[in-house]
Amino acid sequence: MKLNNALIYDGSGSLPYRASIETTGSVISRIQSQGFDDGLDLNGLVVCPGFMDMHAHSEALSLRDPGMSIRAVQGITFDLSGNCGAGLWPRRPGQQRYEDILGPSQGDWKDFASYASQSKASINQAFLQAHGPLRLFCLENNPNREATEAEIRSMAEILETSMDDGCLGLSTGLYYAPCLFASRDEMLALLRTVAHKGGIFSVHHRCEGSSILQSLDEILSIAREAECRTEVSHLKVIGLRNQGLVEKVLEKIESYGATFDQYTYDFGSTSLESLLPPFLLGLPKAQRMEALQDPQVRNKARLQMLHPEGWDSLVDLCSWQNIRILQLPTFAELESMSLAEVAEKLSKDPFDCLFDILSKEKGASLMTDTTQTDESLRTIMRHPLGVWGTDALYTAGPMHPRSSQATFHLFRSFYLDKPAMSLEALIHRMTAKTAQRLGIRDRGLVKEGFKADLCVLDLYHMDEEKREGIPLVLVNGRPIVSRFSSVIEEKAFFPPVLNA
Ligand SMILES: [Zn+2]
Q: In CATH, what is the architecture of 2-49+442-488?
């Protein structure tokens, strides 16, 4: 493919230049100042490397929808999935876990190698071994407890095999069961394995609210002892009253030599159950639903949610009006209402509303929570240790906009409307910087010999609602999105997803 008259932001963070690009097979074969015969005239549109998502959860999506058009139209050409301790392997036959946040998955696999052999995504994928399924597999009778030495050894062995088969490292979610029950010894053993294999460890750490500094110390001190490269996932400080901690958090990460990724919204999304205290999250779902009907349990939960110790109570940090129901199959009429609005509608105490809902909802319930200010988000974004991620979840129902329009939102809000940094710096932290961090040597730059993962940006038509402004996306030289008629005819590899 030949692209003439492009304004190239090459991903390195350097100023742009005008040139034409030729791709041959899967690579960028030539970049030259004059145009190519029969080249597609881009009329000065921006060409940059395809976006590399450091924080994805696409492992079930890519099995259900290998075209991955919801990702491709955003210019995302690379995903690192398996984050936050949530993942699909290892697993026993028929076992379905993490469906509530990763969405339904189809296929038959037992370990990473057999999973990977089934995934035929149209974009590049890389994976972390998630800690959650390791615990579910190795602590079979009850994963919500400390592991024995033998169980720790078997988790480390599986982790090692997954990394031998191509996983880039390990992720955990110390905020979620069953990972929150891991001991220091368990984390140390697993991180030593990752370090030994030269991998990376990504952590959704225990507390992102009032105790964030202690929480970072907890895990980063273990990582330092294990000499393991560590990425703090979706860095933010939760709770308006905690926004003053942002600078200290950044200093803390620097002091440990760790790095971080960030999604660029001031609201997050997770399961509605995550509002509950750990003593309830440790119960299997059916038991938890039953317990929530008991007035004594409700009282205990209410007290802990108002006065949390050693965990983040999002109700306390964000307040009822900032927690909004996103997906609630049994009570669909409540979707998109805040919990404060639900309480008013039902003329009930918000705690009782929440407990009533969670004691009856058998399906997957999701919420969004306003966690931080725009100012803090921008401060974190400008820090040199950060790269971009989406934290996009692909469940069966309504989704946070980070899943479907993250890059449009990013360019609209942080470059066009109210710039947070230069375009070359913004693109750098979505491309070459991520590739460097992951040790990927042939992606992330518009450079001769590099893989032809490319995006064309039409910045002045960037529209987040309509998902417009990225008219052409190439993955390994193949056009997977095209709004140019001459390219649409090039159906040699993949049908363009424009009309999907
Ligand atoms: Zn997470």
A: Roll (2.30)
Q: Is 137 helix (H, G, I), strand (E, B) or coil?
A: helix
Return the DSSP state at 442: S
333: buried, middle or exposed (CB in 10 Å: 19+, 13-18, 0-12)?
exposed
pLDDT digits (tens, 9 = 90+) for 88-97: 999 987 676 7
Q: How far is the CA of 349 from the centre of ligand 1 (A)?
A: 29
Q: Where are the domains of the chain?
A: 2-49+442-488, 51-266+371-404, 279-365
Tell me the per-residue pLDDT of 359-392, one tens digit each, with 9 for 90 and over: 999 888 999 999 999 999 999 999 999 999 999 9
* Alpha-carbon Rg for the chain in angstroms: 23
Which band of pLDDT confidence, cut at 50, 70 and 90, is reported for residue 487? low
8 Å CB contact between 298 and 292:
yes
Length of the chain: 500
Q: Give the C-alpha separation, 217 to 380, whole Å.
A: 18
pTM: 0.92
What pLDDT score does 486 carry?
53
- Tell me: the pLDDT tens digits for 439-471? 999 999 999 999 999 999 999 899 999 999 999
Distance 249 CA to ligand 1 centre (A): 17
- Ligand 1 centroid – CA 428 distance (Å): 23
Pick the CATH number of 51-266+371-404 from 1.10.287.180, 3.20.20.140, 3.30.9.10, 3.10.350.10: 3.20.20.140
